[in-house]
Amino acid sequence: MSDPDTPERHPVRQRGLYFEEFDLDALYQHRPGRTVTEADNVLFTTMTMNTQALHLDAAWSATQPFGERLVNSMFTLSTMVGSSVAQLTQGTIVANLGFSAVTFPHPLHHGDTLYSESIVTDKRLSASRQGQGIVTLEHTGRNQDNVVVGTAVRTVLVWCEDAAQ
Length: 165
Fold this sequence. Notes:
Blueprint: E1 28-35, H1 38-47, H2 53-56, H3 58-61, H4 73-82, H5 85-88, E2 93-103, E3 113-125, E4 132-142, E5 148-159
Antiparallel strand pairs: 1-3, 2-5, 3-4, 4-5
Organism: Cryobacterium lyxosi
Pfam families: MaoC_dehydratas
Family: Belongs to the enoyl-CoA hydratase/isomerase family.
């Protein structure tokens, strides 16, 4: 029940950016970071049917060059992209169009905290889909020591503000 002495509030919905709002000069820092646990790694690895011993077998991994299990690189990629959603594409994306230039220059370890950031490298209106635009994002993931653990270029189709549904 509303109080007649209290002004009515206008709703503010959390969303990502419309095409027009993506800024080529911005560095979007996605926070909070995500500290990765052993449970995260084992669950993600087994859920995706990846039987790589480097993620699951501590004894065998101890004999390998890094001396321990490593976090599944697909978890790293998924978390880098996932952490950008609330700030960039929540409710404004039409579709993921693709990924390219995915790299993992340094491993992520159990207990590391992953911090992600994104820049816009290109944007253009869609020639075939009125009211939508194509945005190219470069995602970078760094650990708590600021070491780059992953990069990816992602192309997304997003709504223009006037056409948003």
